[in-house]
Every structure is written in C-alpha cells, then in structure tokens.
Design a protein that fits this description.
The complex is a heterodimer. By secondary structure, chain A is of the alpha+beta class. Chain A is built from five helices and five strands; from the N terminus they run E-E-H-E-E-E-H-H-H-H. The chains are: A alpha+beta, B alpha+beta. The structure holds FE2/S2 (inorganic) cluster (FES) (2 copies).
Chain lengths: 157, 753
C-alpha cells in the first residue's frame, strides 16, 4: 500500500506521520496520536461527535482525510483547556449548567460552540441552536447546553 | 439524619470534568498492549438457513489471528435474558432469525484487516420467507420462529380488576380506538464497544459499556461454559444506553474472541451494525376502549396490546407487562381488563427502552381520554381531574405501590406554568392547539417479582486516612448516579465530596446490584448505601465516644469532624477517628443489602404532568412547539441540575418519538440504517420555550425521600404533543410518529383549507 508522509499540527504540536492516504483524520487522531477525546459516533458525518476545529472552523473529522489536514491548525478537545489544566470558560459552564450527561457528544459540542463564540461572542438562542445543529445529543435535550453557552456569552463583555 | 450539606444542592457531577476535557475513557478509548480487533459477520438475511461457512480465504490472510464459527465455540452457544435461546453464532444447518444474528467472527491485527477478513468469509444461505408482522405471525400455520413457541407467542400478560362487562353496561358513553406506535431506536451516541483479554491466571476480563455487569457474566457463563469465578466484567462510562445496553450486547462475542484468539481484543460495532443489533422500543398496536357516565366518571377500561417482540424474548415479558399496567395511568377505574401479547417475528429485536413499555400505553390512554372528552363535550383537563386517583387511593394496576398522590398539586403547577393560551395572528394559516396530560411512572423499589433478581447491594469502606470508597454495582449511564451516591455518602459522613470515591459497575469489586433499569438506581443503591453507611457511622461514633469519653449518641459527624454539638473543644478530625478505628481493628467495610418487604409494595409510583402549546401551519404542515412544560413529583430533588437534565432529555426523546422517529423495516430489512435516515431531534427541533419543574412530596421509603425519575418525562410528553396537534387541527391522531406529510394529509381529508 502506498503511504504518504505529512506533518499534522494538532493543538500546537507538530507530528510527522507516515500514513495510508485513505485514512480519516478521526482515525489518525484516535489511533496514531492517542487523542481519544474526539469520539466516533457514526463515521459518516451524521452525528458530530468527531467535531474538531480546522483553522478554527468546526469539521467532522470522520469526513476529512488526514492528508487533507496537513498544513492546517487542528484543535481537538485536548487542546481546549490551557496547559496548566485551567478549563475553557465554556467547559466550566457545561459543568455548572448540567450540560453533560453521558458526555459522548460533549467534546464535539464544546468545539462547535467555541468556534461560534469566537465568531459571535454574544449569540442569540437561534444562533446557538444553528451552531449546535450538527452535534447530536441524545441525553440532554440541548436545553442546558444552550444555557451554558448563554452564560458564557453574558459574562463576556 | 442531617440534611443540607450536599443533598439538594447543585453540586457538579463528579464525572463532568473528565467528560468536558475528553479525558474520560469510554470502552473504545482503551488501548491494550498487543490488542487485536474483532469483527462480526452478521447475517444479511432476516431468515435464512446457513448452509455452509467457508473461512479459508479469511484464514489465509496475513494478520488474521483467528476465524470463529459456531463449531469453535465451547459451551452451549446460547444466551439471553428470560429465555437463553439466542445463539452466539448461528451454526451451519440452522436458521437465522433476524439481520442482527451473527454467523462468524474474525480477530485480526488491525481494524482494517478485520473488516477485510470478515468480508472474505463466504457464507451460503438458503433464503426463507421472513415473518414481518405480528398479525402474519399469529396466523394459524405460520412458521414458528421458535419451535416451542406456539402461535409465535413470546408472552401474554393479563390484568383483570372488577368486571368490565358490567362497567360498560353502566356507561353512558363508550369510545374506542386502535393506535399504532412505531419502533423507536435508542440512538445512543456511543455504539456497542469493549475490550476483553484473558490474564495469565486464566481469568477472562471483559471491559465494556453495559448496564448490567452481572447479567453479562451470567450470559458469558451460559454460552461459553466459563466458570463464573473466572469471569470479571467491568463497565466503562456509558455513552448513552436508555435500555439499549441493558441486555448483553457484544460481550459474549467479545469474550469468545479473546478466549479463542488468545490475545486482547477490541470490538466496536459500526453504526449500521449497532442499529441492526440491539433491541428497540416495541412497535405496538393498541386497541383501547373506555366507558364513562355523562358526568365523565370512568366506569370501565378494556385494552388489548399486540407487540412485535422481534426474534428473541429478552425483556419483552417485562416490558409488555408494564404496557398492560400503564394503560390505566393515574386514574380511578373500577373495572379493567387489559392484556398485552408479544409476538415473535423476523424483524429487528425489541426490548428495553427508557419508559419500558409505558410510553406506548400513555399514547393510547391519553389520546383516548381526549376523544372521550370530545364525546362528552367536556374540557379534557376537567375530565382527567374527575378521574384522578385521590390521596389514599391505590393505583388501578397490578403493580402495587403506595406513594402519596400529588395530582392536584401537579395540576395547579402546570396550569400556572402554562399561562394564557396564545392565539394565532388573524388571517394566518397557523392553528394553535393545547394539551395537558398526566402519567404515573413506576420505578422499581427492589422487588420485581417475576425473577427475584432485584435485591441491591452496596459496600462502603472508610480508609484509615479518612477517605471513603463506595462500591456500587450499578452503572453510570449519564444519569448521574455516581454523583448522587457520592452526595449521599458525603452527607452521611459529614465529609466534602472530594473525600468520596465511587467505584461502579464491576462484578468483582461491587456487591451484586443487578441491572440499571426501571429508574431503580437512586432508590435501590441509595438505600443499600444508607444501610452500609449507617453501620459505619455507628462504628466511628462509638470509637470517637471512647476517645472523647462521651456517649456515642451525643456525637455527630459534620464538617469533617466527629463533634459534640455546641462544644468545639470536644471534636476529633474524621481522619483521626478513622485511623484509630483501623488501628484498633474495627471493621471499616460494610455491605448494605436492600430488598423491600415481599407483598408490601413492589413498585414506587410517581406522578407527572406535561403540557404543550403548538402552532400547526395548515399550509405547510409544519409543527412549531411554542411551549412545553413538564412538572414531575420527584419526591425529593437530590440534585436539581441533574434532575432537570433528566426531564429535558426525556422530553426531547418523547418529541422524537411522537413527531419524527420510526425505525422502519421492510421484509425484515432496516430502511433507516444510519442517522441520515433515522433522524433524531437536533438542537433546531426543541421547543421555543421549555419549562421544567419538580414538586416534592417525599416518598417515605426513598433515600432522603427521593423517587426514581429517570423515565418519567418520556412517557407523558409524547401524548401531550399529539393531543395538542389534534386540538389545533380538530383531527384525531391514531398513528405515530406524526410528521409534516401526515398533517397535510389530515388537512386535505378534513378540508381545513
Ligand atoms: S463520527 Fe463523524 S459525524 Fe459522526
Ligand atoms: S450527553 Fe449523552 S449524547 Fe450528549
């Protein structure tokens, strides 16, 4: 099988890899780099559990080939809190508002919403719903996730 | 018992930090040295005879460690809850019963290789005509899915109370309707996954997402003839279960792979396999009849449920027992005859799903009550109130229980929450509808009589440094039980939450706790834990009493100390007392075992009200949920954020059930094999306004007065939405889910436009 060498920049760190070109970014993150915080819920672009940021924009990592992600800044859930363990305000808000139940959708949802807050620091409810639409959550009914985002938006001046 | 340290407070979930940072290890995140990957070959045909399985091509592929068929399996090759009649692998010469039946398995060094090897296994089948509806399966002469089940009957549950014939005779108004409810998929986001390996001493370790480690160990033992003393089953944090992981899922297959391949194996189902494999909410046909006097007093109820049980028994008898019981709801009904029948077919399997048979019943009951209200020209809320159970009443149900009745309080609250009914703008194509419905969810309080498997144990250990371990064999499904148990232990010992560690879902370290279902955990485990902590408190107090030379009765545990109330000088650090107990050889590990008294109460009941305002656009068929309100009697709210999370989450699953979801099969094949076809509610589908409230009428035997609340919201919300839509359009809804196209058809039929 032909393989391809490339460098992936994940959470600010460079990783030199030698990969079969058909492998998804999701599989490479989880299996080659051990970043299992990114979840696989469907492997088909339907659930959003695998959401990561590519140059700040949310994508489904199961639909992106790893080789396509070379040269871009990849952010996974492991790169969201600061290196000293300080949580991102949105992560804090998720905990405080009960936005986490089984947690399987949580990493993906957090990343989609961080991207939203970066673009739109004070989103409306409709904008939050829109940003979250690609992240299925079967547990929470979304209400407390939306509350969590709102609380962060309200506290940012 | 002192309250108010952490009980009832919004303490954050103990598992939340790991989950928001991605550090929590779910089963598929585990990496073991030398780990191989498993793949199951499922039957592509719902019913076919397996003629020949040719594994040669797969076996010769480099990197393939083991190919397994029924021939290789030790043991009976059969497992299953209720009736152990499910084959691990269908042997040559036998028939498959649905598309989730497995015929072969491979273990290979990579996932990709396992996939390719599985595809290289050639199976020859003789195709046979599947049974695809219960009605067809009930016909005389129909082939039998299980030879021993005449008429393809999986189970029949019946309940008689009073005399329905007399009840209907004395009724002045009788209404009757048949309702059809769909097959609902749990759609948990984490597919079935796990790892397994055998250690040097021959012990098999299975680490997987599951709801019942004891049931899984039992099934592995049955199917593979491994002694129970050599089976260690450990549950991982579950990425959603909702009943779909209640029975053994992939664990027997995984165990066989690890034993036969003699390497650690990981097995993760893909989404399509997952959707095909696990049991779902039973599709039902429910004929229901109600008779009442002109004043609205109900005299009789007769109900007949026919459910598609799918190919295997599993939870069907229990689930349908609840369907039959829940047809009466929170109402006084003097004469009742209900029956529920589960019928085997070659469709997808049916089993446990949050609500456990009650959601189907609630749809039929609440929709028919609205029909009765129309027939009587009576306000539907008034009709319900007239028939509410009253304080002191026993529920009209085979599931006896004695919970305080709080229906009037719920009514007051829900009406208050709802406010004035909105009106549509003039000349708009929107029609506004409103509904208020009620339900009486049940929860297991430790004595499901059918199987006698419901005793619940928990162990608590105080370590010599004053930290505490709780061992509780239930499973964290995201419902928050770990946190609730930690809260209870913290409360009991007067310690902060961070001194308590809760170990869950492990058949080796935790006393037997049975399954995680029927909203039973907080109640059962909580009570078991209180028994254990009660004894430990006594040990600590007696020891501290000796140290301080004060009677133990005068001491309390609070603020991480053992204190004499009001005398700061007379206090010892909790850790110091723990150390002294340990030093003097006191027993610092206690087990609590909770089982409610036989024949007294078997179930706890609670009460729930749901209300909705909807706008239905008769031009487009679009349904807008303007407002949804849920009020639930929680007994006592142990943790508000988590309790409301259960309400919101349950209500949105109910919304999906009523308006969107149906796992359709044609000829036994799934037509909705992925999230692209099986659409569940997204953030765009939730109501514009969503209010949830808990009222508290403490449940005398519940821990701190709490009731089981995990399933309540689901039952009640679906019929509320359906009735609100029916109210908006002035039509009757008898088949679920009701989507845009159904609304438009109704509009055409009724000539509303
Ligand atoms: S795993 Fe990528 S969208 Fe579901
Ligand atoms: S918390 Fe379970 S899927 Fe979102």
């Amino acid at each position: 099988m032909t393989r391809q060498s490339l460098v992936l920049t994940v959470n600010g760190k460079n990783h030199a890899l030698d990969l079969a070109p058909h492998r998804s970014l999701l599989d490479v993150l989880r299996d080659e780099l051990g970043l299992t915080g990114t979840k696989k819920g469907c492997d088909a672009g339907d659930c959003g559990a695998c959401t990561v940021l590519l140059d700040g924009a949310p994508v489904n990592a199961c639909l992106v080939l790893a080789v396509q992600a070379g040269g871009q800044e990849i952010t996974t859930i492991e790169g969201v809190s600061s290196s000293d363990g300080q949580l991102h305000p949105l992560q804090e808000a998720f905990i405080e508002h009960g936005a986490v139940q089984c947690g399987f959708c949580t990493p993906g949802a957090v990343l989609s919403l961080i991207a939203l807050l970066r673009e739109t620091p004070r989103p409306t409810r409709a904008e939050i719903q829109e940003a979250l639409a690609g992240n299925l959550c079967r547990c929470t009914g979304y209400v407390q996730i939306i509350d969590a985002v709102k609380s962060v938006a309200d506290s940012s001046k | 018992m002192t309250h108010g340290n952490v009980i009832g407070k919004g303490v954050p979930r103990v598992d939340a930090r790991g989950k928001v940072t991605g550090q929590t290890k779910y089963a598929a995140d585990i990496r073991l040295p030398g780990m191989h990957y498993g793949k199951i070959v499922f039957s592509p045909h719902p019913r076919a005879r397996v003629l020949e399985i040719d594994c040669r091509a797969a076996e010769s592929m480099p990197g393939v460690r083991k190919v397994i068929t029924a021939r290789n399996l030790p043991g009976s090759n059969r497992y299953g809850y209720d009736v152990a009649h499910r084959p691990v692998l269908v042997p040559e010469g036998e028939e498959t019963r649905y598309i989730g039946d497995a015929v072969a398995m491979v273990v290979a060094s990579s996932e990709e290789l396992a996939d390719r090897a599985a595809a290289a296994i050639a199976v020859r089948y003789e195709l046979l005509a599947p049974l695809t509806s219960p009605r067809q399966a009930m016909e005389p002469g129909a082939y039998l899915v299980h030879a021993e089940a005449a008429g393809n009957r999986c189970c029949l549950r019946e309940f008689v109370h009073g005399d329905v014939a007399v009840g209907f005779q004395t009724s002045e108004v009788v209404v009757e309707q048949t309702y059809f409810t769909p097959r609902q998929e749990q759609a948990f986001l984490e597919p079935e996954s796990g790892v397994a390996y055998q250690d040097d001493s021959g012990v098999l370790h299975v680490i997987s997402c599951l709801q019942d480690p004891y049931g899984v160990a039992e099934d592995i033992h049955l199917a593979l003839a491994i002694p129970k003393s050599r089976i260690h089953v450990k549950g991982t944090p579950v990425g959603g279960g909702f009943g779909g992981k209640l029975n053994t899922t992939i664990q027997v297959h995984l165990a066989a792979m690890a034993c036969l391949a003699e390497v650690p194996v990981m097995l993760v189902l893909d989404r399509e396999e997952s959707f095909a494999f696990h049991p779902k909410r039973h599709p039902t046909e429910i004929r229901l009849k109600l008779g009442a006097g002109r004043d609205g007093t109900i005299h009789a109820l007769e109900g007949d449920v026919i459910a598609d049980a799918g190919p295997y028994s599993g939870r069907s008898p229990e689930v349908l027992g609840l369907t039959m019981s829940a047809l009466m709801g929170p109402y006084r009904i003097p004469n009742v005859l209900t029956r529920a029948e589960g019928i085997y077919t070659n469709n997808l399997d049916s089993g446990a799903f949050r609500g456990f048979g009650a959601p189907q019943a609630a749809i039929a009951r609440e929709c028919l009550l609205d029909k009765l209200a129309r027939a009587l020209a009576m306000d539907p809320l008034e009709l319900r109130r007239r028939n509410f159970l009253r304080p002191g009443d026993r529920p009209t149900s085979p599931m006896l229980g004695d919970s305080p009745v709080s229906l009037e309080l719920l009514t007051e609250r829900i009406v208050e929450k709802l406010g004035p009914k909105p009106s549509a703008p003039k000349n708009s194509t929107k029609r506004i509808g409103r509904s208020i419905c009620f339900d009486m969810p049940v929860f297991d309080v430790g004595a499901i009589p059918v199987l006698g498997k419901s005793g619940v144990g928990a162990a608590v250990e105080v370590h010599s440094d004053g930290s505490v371990s709780v061992y509780a064999g239930g499973t964290e499904l995201g419902q928050g039980v770990t946190t609730v148990l930690a809260q209870m232990a913290a409360e009991q010992f007067g310690l902060p939450m961070d001194r308590i560690r809760v170990e869950m879902s492990d058949n080796w370290t935790c006393p037997r706790a049975g399954r995680t279902s029927a909203s039973r955990l907080t109640f059962g485990l909580g009570n078991a834990l209180l028994l254990a902590t009660g004894r430990l408190r006594q040990t600590l107090l007696v020891r501290a009493g000796k140290m301080l030379e004060i009677a133990a009765e005068d001491l309390v545990l609070e603020g991480s100390e053992v204190r004499l109330v009001g005398v700061p000088a007379k206090a010892l650090a909790f850790a110091e007392v723990a150390w002294m107990c340990s030093d003097r050889g006191d027993n610092l590990r206690e087990e609590g075992w909770f089982r409610s008294a036989e024949d007294r109460y078997m179930y706890g009941h609670t009460f729930m009200a749901a209300a909705a305002d909807v706008a239905v656009d008769i031009a487009t068929g679009e349904i807008e949920i303007l407002k949804l309100a849920n009020v639930l009697d929680m007994g006592r709210v142990l943790n508000p954020a988590m309790a409301f999370g259960q309400l919101y989450g349950g209500a949105i699953q109910a919304l999906g059930y009523g308006l969107m979801e149906n796992m359709v099969t044609v000829d036994g094949q799934s037509k909705t094999p992925s999230f692209a076809e099986y659409v569940i509610p997204s953030a765009l589908d939730i109501p514009e306004e969503f209010v949830a409230e808990g009222v508290e009428t403490p449940y005398p035997t519940g821990p701190f007065g709490a009731k089981g609340i995990g399933e309540a919201a689901l039952n009640c919300t679906t019929p509320t939405l359906l009735n609100a839509i029916a109210d908006a359009l002035g039509v009757e809804i008898t088949a679920v889910p009701i989507g845009q196209e159904h609304i438009l058809a109704a509009v055409r039929n009724q000539k509303l436009m």
